[in-house]
Design a protein that fits this description.
Blueprint (H helix, E strand, L loop, with lengths): L2 H8 L2 H26 L1 H9 L3 H4 L1 H9 L5 H50 L3 H5 L3 H42 L1 H21 L1 H27 L1 H7 L2 H52 L7 H30 L1 H11 L16 E12 L2 E12 L3 E5 L6 H8 L7 E6 L2 E2 L5 H5 L2 E4 L10 H6 L6 H10 L3 H7 L16 H14 L4 E5 L7 H14 L4 E6 L10 E6 L2 E4 L1
Parallel strand pairs: 3-8, 3-9, 6-7, 7-8
Antiparallel strand pairs: 1-2, 1-4, 4-5, 9-10
Helix pairs in contact: 1-14, 2-6, 2-8, 3-6, 3-13, 6-8, 8-9, 8-10, 8-13, 8-14, 9-12, 10-12, 10-13, 12-13, 18-20, 20-21
């Protein structure tokens, strides 16, 4: 798919209308620019030779229509009007660049939002196959780079019109000089596009690869900070970071250096062309060129305005080449078909049936086959077995995170489907083995950033047997936990995870090896609390230690992809 088609697919209907307006505005600006340059030639001509006002029929008609008292007044008014015209031209250019920036930079927010929305809409299966640092990079960096690319594309469109109109005016004045200049500049521009732009494009791919490594190293380092300090392997990590950071920086240095090459190259050509135009005019007139001063001024000013335009065209093209990878990444990520889930109500009054469930992460590698299971409301059951046997996968299917390849889940004779799965998930209170707490207060972590009921927060903390500790030794529910809950012990984090699960008033409580990282004494204490608070709930436990499931009514083991009642 071409760059323009990909860009078009990322823009909304409103964006395209505004973009069309900007294109028309750029044409208007190009006309204004052309008039501003073309007006210089007659002004300098009559300022250097007043008799032209009498000999030129257009100047004479204007002079007589406005009844000027002298040629001097005519020239002065002409000059003053030009000054006001250039002020107006400057204001319109500022307005255009403001609208251009508002459009292009505004896409950063919208694209970042759409990416984040799309990532949230991914199925759990899709998400676990992604690297979180790569997703962060796309939202934070790639959206900004794509904005630069959109700006570059719009600059190219506007500058193309400026170049076309100014060249048209120059051709009208002297087509021979203009054609020679066009061929000369065109050949040199072709050289820049063929030789310089491919290098910049390659550096864009290198930039994306090194920046991905850059984010991965930072995320993995901060996520394993304690282990790194214990292993004292700072040098190894710093070497990896240095390699990624330097590689990213080097690609930027090459790109930025080469992006300045067209400007210097074209300016050199431009000044050389001006000298050649003077030589050509002297040769044509075989004398001094005072009579051709107007034409010369027009070409000098035209080149003065065309050189920046040509440079911006090439620079914009090179930016598009350098950041084209951002467009590919964002376009591909926004093409993901996220989950389309309904919130139809589903009641759980009696029993959950798993009927002939089969699942695999790929079709030729099945994890579970033909699983049949019934769970009564209020029942306490456990799944045991070695790591990789499929017990966590089965529970993930049960709570609606994975969709089985075959079979179905039936709750009180109602099939769990896309129309009601969101409502089903809300009935689940999930306590994982690894508890993630964000850098906020205990209350904020329990309510997960939402507005919270202080009384309800204290109630669930009391049930999790941690409220008394927080109020006696910390700042109560306003205790800051630190990033990842670093200020709390493992047992305290697990209790907050229990409180977080209870806060949603779940009907089903799921413990996914939630106490396996704790010592036996703390584990027994927490399990006693869980059994106590889940008396009126359905309890599903995934465990390694048999001591944690001694009060479960049924214990299942997965053997050879099948479910066996122990």
């Amino acid at each position: 798919m071409s760059i323009l088609k990909k860009l078009s697919s990322l823009l909304t209907k409103h964006d395209k209308k505004f973009l069309l307006f900007l294109v028309f505005f750029s044409v208007f600006i190009a006309v204004i620019e052309t008039i501003g340059i073309a007006a210089i030639m007659p002004f300098i001509s009559i300022a250097s030779d007043f008799t032209l006002i009498e000999s030129n029929e257009y100047y004479k008609a204007i002079y007589e229509f406005f009844r000027f008292s002298s040629y001097l007044d005519f020239v002065i008014v002409f000059g003053v009007l030009l000054v006001f015209y250039y002020i107006l031209r400057g204001g319109l250019n500022l307005l255009y660049f403001y609208l251009l920036a508002r459009f292009s930079k505004g896409r950063t927010h919208l694209l970042a939002y759409r990416l984040f929305e799309n990532y949230l809409g991914m199925s759990y299966h899709q998400f676990i196959n992604k690297n979180s640092s790569e997703l962060s990079k796309s939202i934070i960096n790639e959206t900004q780079y794509l904005t630069i690319m959109i700006s570059a594309t719009l600059f190219m469109v506007s500058e193309i019109f400026v170049v076309i109109f100014i060249y048209s005016a120059m051709i009208y004045i002297d087509w021979k000089i203009t054609i020679i200049m066009t061929i000369f500049l065109g050949l040199n521009a072709l050289f820049l596009i063929k030789k310089i732009s491919p290098i910049i494009k390659r550096q864009g791919v290198v930039r994306e690869e090194y920046q991905k490594k850059f984010f991965e190293i930072i995320n993995s380092t901060f996520g394993n900070f304690k282990i790194i300090k214990l292993q004292s392997n700072d040098k190894l990590i710093l070497d990896r970071f240095n390699s990624a950071s330097y590689g990213f920086t080097k690609s930027a240095i090459v790109s930025e250096s080469l992006s300045n090459f067209p400007r210097i190259f074209l300016e050199t050509l431009g000044f050389g062309l001006i000298a050649l135009v003077v030589v050509y005019l002297v040769y044509m007139y075989q004398s001094n060129i005072s009579s051709a001063l107007g034409i010369l001024s027009m070409f000098v000013l035209g080149l003065y305005r065309l050189m920046p335009s040509a440079n911006r065209l090439l620079n914009s093209y090179n930016q598009i080449m350098y950041y084209h990878k951002s467009l590919d990444l964002i376009h591909n990520d926004l093409m993901y078909n996220g989950e389309s889930l309904g919130n139809e109500n589903i009641d759980f009054q009696n029993v959950i049936h798993l009927q002939n469930i089969s699942f695999g992460y790929s079709e030729n590698k099945m994890v579970l086959e033909n699983i049949d299971l019934s769970i009564q409301k209020g029942e306490k059951i456990a799944f045991v077995g070695p790591s990789g046997s499929g017990k966590s996968t089965l529970v993930d299917i049960l709570i609606g995170l994975y969709r089985p390849m075959s079979g179905q889940i039936v709750v009180d004779d109602k099939i769990i489907s896309e129309s009601n799965i969101k409502n089903w998930r809300k009935k689940i209170g999930y306590i994982p083995q690894s508890v993630y707490l964000f850098d906020g207060t205990v209350a904020q972590n329990i309510a997960f950033g939402q507005e919270y009921d202080e009384k309800k927060i204290k109630d669930v903390l009391a049930k999790a047997k941690i409220l008394e500790f927080l109020e006696a030794h910390q700042n109560g529910i306003d205790t800051f936990v630190g990033e990842g809950g670093i200020k709390l012990s493992g047992g305290q984090k697990q209790r907050i995870a229990i409180a977080r699960a209870l806060y949603q008033e779940p009907e089903i409580l799921v413990l996914d090896e939630a106490t396996s990282s704790l010592d036996e004494a703390i584990e027994k204490e927490i399990m006693d609390e869980i059994y106590e608070i889940s008396q009126d709930k359905t309890l599903i436990i995934i465990a390694h230690r048999l001591s944690t499931i001694d009060r479960c009514e049924k214990v299942y083991k997965i053997k050879n992809k099948r479910l066996v009642l122990e």
